[in-house]
Amino acid sequence: MKMTRDSNTDFTMLKPSTAYLGIFLALAVIFGYVEALIPVPVPVPGIKLGLTNLVITAILYVYGYREALVITTLRVFIIGFLFGNLFSIAYGLTGAVLSLTVMALMKRTGLFGVIGISAAGGVSHNIAQVMTAYFMVTGFPVRWYMPILMLAGVGAGILTGIADVMIIPRLHRFGVR
Amino acid sequence: MKDFSIRKYIGIPDILLIIVLTALPTVMLGCNFFAGGSKENPQIAVYVHGELYGKYDLDTPAIIEIGDTNTLEIVSGHASMIHADCRDQVCVHTAPIGKESPGHIVCLPNGIVVSVENAEYSTDIDGYVS
Fold first, then answer.
1. What CATH class has A17-172?
2. Does B125 reside within a domain?
3. Global ipTM
4. What's the number of CA atoms in the CB half-sphere (13 Å) around residue A102?
5. Which of A14, A164, B49, B80 would be a feasible disulfide site paired with B96, CB 3.0-4.6 Å?
C-alpha cells in the first residue's frame, strides 16, 4: 500500500495545488528581485544570499523534484525577461537546474538533512555559473572565481538551510497543501 | 492533514559534507596563492630565441637593454620597445603592453618576444542572475 509509506518525508505522491505553486513562483521571482537590492560588501561579483534557493528547497520538500524544476525554470525565464537578457537566462538556468538536481538526488539518498542539502545546492549553483562563465567569456579567471564562489555557496547554503528548517514545518499552518 | 515536519535537519553526513565543501575551495585558493604567485603584480617576461632572458616588474619604471640589439622601456605600468637595430622597426611601432592591455611585442630579426605574464583580463559579463 502506498499510503503506508513514510509520510514524514515523501510528499511527492500527494497532488500539489497549482494555486500554491503559483504563489511560490511569485515568491521566488520577488526574492530574486529583492536580493539584487541587498548590497554585498565583497569585491567579487556573483556572491549573493540565494533567497530564491530558500523557496526552491521548500518546494522540493513540500512537493517534489518535478514541481521545483518547473517553478525554478519559470522563475529564471521570468526574471531573465523582466530584468536581464539572454545571458542572464543562460547563467540562471544552468545554476538553477544543476543545484536543484543535486539537491533532489541528495534528498533521495536519505542521508542528508536540509542544511547539508542546501549547502550542496549553493555550491553546485555557483560551480555551474562559473563553468558557464568559463565557456562564455574567454580568459575568465576560473581558478580564482571557483574557490571563492564555492566558499560563498557553502555559507549562503547553510544560512538558507537554517531558514528552511524553520520555514518548512510551519508551512502547513498557513494552509499550504 | 499533511505533516510538514522534517525528520532530519542536520546530521553527521551533513557536517562531513560541509567540511569537505569548505576545505576543497580553501585548498584550491591556497594552491593559487602558492603556485600562481604574483597575481597582484603582473610581470614583463622577455624571451630571446625561446629562452627566458628576464622578468621585470611592471610597476617599477626601468630601461632594459636586451643583448645589444634592443632596448625595452617600462614606464607607468606599460612596456614598449624604444630601440631596435633592425631595419623594419616593427617592434618599436607595436603598441605598449601592460596589465590591462595584454599582448606581445615581437622582434623577429633578433628573436625576441616580450609578453605580459599574470595579466588580468577584463571580464565583461553582461549580466548575471539570481
1. mainly alpha
2. no
3. 0.77
4. 21
5. B80
